[in-house]
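In the laboratory, one determines a bound structure by crystallizing the protein with its ligand and collecting diffraction data. In a computational setting the workflow is compressed into a single prediction: the sequence and the ligand go in, and a structural description comes out. We illustrate the idea with phenylalanine.
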Amino acid sequence: MSTHNVWTHKGTFLLAAVGSAVGLGNLWRFPYLTGENGGGAFILVYALTIFAVGIPILIAETMLGRNSRRSPIMGMRFLTRTHNTSRAWESIGWLGAASAFLILSFYSVIAGWAIHYTWQMLTGSLVGADAETISAGFDALLASPALLTLYHTLFIIASGLIVGMGIHKGIESGLRIIMPALFIILLVVLAYGVTNGDFRAAASFLFTFNIADLSLEGWLAAMGQSFFTLSLGMGAIMAYGAYMSSEISLTRTALAIAVVDTAVAMVAGLAIFSLVFGAGLDAGQGPGLMFVTLPLAFAEMPFGALVGGVFFILVLGAAISSSISLIEPVAAFLVERFDLTRPQAVFAMVLASWALGLLTVASFNVYAEGTIFHTLFGRSAFEFIELLTNIFMPLGGLLIALFAGWALTHSEVMKEMRTNETWFAIWRLLVRFVAPAAVAFVFLRAIPQVEGYLIPAIGALVIVGAFAAGRTFLVDDSQG
Ligand code: PHE
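The predicted complex, in structure-token form:
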């Protein structure tokens, strides 16, 4: 029905989706957010949202990709035609492409920090260093536009090359090496943490669920993290779904992705906090957790340079398999829409994202404060780009849930999910009502003025509005 490629092996979608999901979100963002939000309670809410919101939307997004067999934008155009719905639903594709472009621009810069620390570790330059030396080193890295640009450039070129080589030679064979290596190295780091750090403290920090400790913001942060970590709402999963063989059950696959992604985050959390507590460091220190605290822990440990080097290679592997999933949907669109060759499309996407990434680079030094961005938006360019993606991703997820929940027919969904009526009914309840409601909260989190009890109230309004809009857009004559 279309000229689109299909993965050569049945298991490749799972491999690719896990590669996309597992990244800086699991290894850097999850531990630091958990540390900031007090541990167990955050994890409980995060896990609940993964399973009640994340998995249904993961199924929905894959479904839209596999049903259309096109890149997100062209796919949504196709689906609005075949389902007699408003062209406005195409915005799912556009939002996704915009998010991918924006996320890649800063993701690449942050991943670049891991290149720096891989180098620092392997050359042994931090062995025996104290806390001041290490945070001064981190500050010095952030203060150097040249160094940040160099790493950013290296990372984005590596990502572009993998995607440019095509899904079979590039993504597929790349992931076959990256993912298993990733799991093994992560387990090695965990084993090291267990024997040399304070595993007990880490486990009790992560798994003591005291839900009363969690602030409203903590709840919202946990939900936001569940979106980011599963790569939802921006077309990555839809693009990969378009290459997925039709025989495989979406339900099982989505479950497997969520379980693996959560397991990696937990193992990473246990490993990182074992090291953190073992070295008597502060768990709640924020985004610097991985890039300041870990090198310090590694500096103090026997064989720390080696363990640290291996760990940052793991981070890079995870980051690159995520960044290739950011390039894929946009590149696939450029190929389909403008008849570019695959390398041309990748080059265009990567070049534009690279250029935008320079704003993130500058946000940590020359444009750190007092420039046009601060005046206009009250934040750095990097923070502004992050804010945009924080709005676009949940919004995309909300629209995906609504479209899949209301526009797709029973038989279409059953064909994709390959499950029984009970699971179908549960899924549809979740995508029609539960997921949109939860996503509305995440979306509203981005509005700083909306605090406390206003959030549920306005959330309810948004949901009602979304349903009204959904009903209006959907001329549901395809229902059989
Ligand atoms: N899920 C990735 C991570 O955890 C980040 C990502 C978000 C990748 C969105 C693709 C799309 O690092």
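The chain has 20 helices and no strands. Keep in mind that any predicted model is a hypothesis to be tested, not a measurement.
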